[in-house]
Amino acid sequence: METANLQTRPLGTTDLAITRVGIGAWAIGGGDWSFGWGPQDDQDSLAAMRHGVELGINWIDTAAVYGLGHSEEVVGRLLRELPDGERPYIFTKCGLVWNEDDRMEDAERVLRPDSIRREVEASLRRLGVERIDLYQFHWPDETGTSVEDSWGEMVRLVEEGKVRAAGVSNFDVGLLERCEAIRHVDSLQPPFSPIARQAAGAEIPWCVEHGTGVIVYSPLQSGLLTEKWTADRLDGLDPDDWRHRSEEFQQPRLDRNLKLRDALGPIARRHDTTIPAVAVAWTLAWPGVTGSIVGARSPDQVDGWIGAASLNLDNEDLNAIARALEATGAGDGPRRP
């Protein structure tokens, strides 16, 4: 699949060459579920994804649980609108099983083989595809199922042709090692931003050592590292927006996080770009990070961060960000690649 003008990188040892940024489809799942972002118009979602693809982005990351199936359905609508040669790669995830009778109840973390099998079939139907380009375990299991049994089922899905590449999300090194002993882990999806930096201390280096691709999520810390966020903006969000419950959006962390955001401004101006583009480019500067998943609910939001795809931060930039991290006390983890 060709891209318009964006650089690509191989995803680990797979045959997938992905653009440095991908479209995250969490928020397009809409509201009325336990980790929703409030109401979202499907036409806006389709316009955002279509715009990103037109700019050259060649992958979209979603999950079954986003909107309790709705995000995958909207992504499927986009695929039906696009000619085969223009379709992006589709990455999705399983392992969060929701209660059909209570949309606001937190999903259960389930990686039993029979549950994985049901989930992949449901995702294939919602997406309208015969094979998922990258299928990932969303979170470690909490039902007592061994990761060896779970990963063994993932291997069978690859062998059957339902899944092209196999990955995990939110796994630590111990779980990665156990999976790797059975079959190579093609990719890891950890949270990673200038605020949430813990993965740089262990999981990302492990991936470098083992040839596992890394696609990071929430590089903008769910909107905090954008010019539009203000100290009182949370009050205006929809009541069911999950960010009301996030500690990063509460004091005292909020003040530290916004000071860090402001410190990215001079770097953005020096490169004639945006603060979100700088924040995303920071994640891409770390050795081992293949791509960064960035959410978008409208075409304008895509335009706000797409510059990260071609922005290479230099030593001066990285040193300035490291100093800002130390001065503000925002987040936790290694400060510099």
Structure write-up:
The chain is α/β, with parallel strands linked by helices and 337 residues long. The protein has one domain (18-328): TIM Barrel, CATH 3.20.20. Helices cover 35% and strands 14% of the residues. It contains eleven helices and twelve strands. It has helices at residues 42-54, 70-81, 113-127, 147-159, 173-180, 203-210, 253-263, 265-270, 275-284, 299-305, 315-328, and strands spanning 8-10, 17-19, 21-24, 59-61, 89-94, 96-97, 108-109, 132-137, 163-169, 187-189, 213-216, 291-295. It has an eight-stranded parallel beta barrel, surrounded by six helices. Helix 2 links the parallel strand 4 (59-61) and strand 5 (89-94). Helix 7 packs antiparallel against helix 11. The two termini are 31 Å apart. The model has no long low-confidence stretch (mean pLDDT 95).
According to CATH, the fold-level topology is TIM Barrel
The helix-strand sequence is EEEHEHEEEHEHEHEHEHHHEHH
Instruction: Profile the largest sheet.
Output: 8 strands, parallel, barrel
Strand residue percentage: 5-15%
Terminal Cα span: 31 Å
Using DSSP, what is the number of strands? Answer: 12
CATH class: Alpha Beta
Class derived from helix and strand content: alpha/beta
- Architecture per CATH nomenclature, i.e. the level-2 architecture: Alpha-Beta Barrel
In round numbers, the mean pLDDT is: 95
* Order of strands in the sheet with most strands: 3-4-5-8-9-10-11-12
Number of helices: 11
**Low-confidence residue ranges:** none
- Shape, principal axes of CA atoms: globular
Helix content: 25-40%
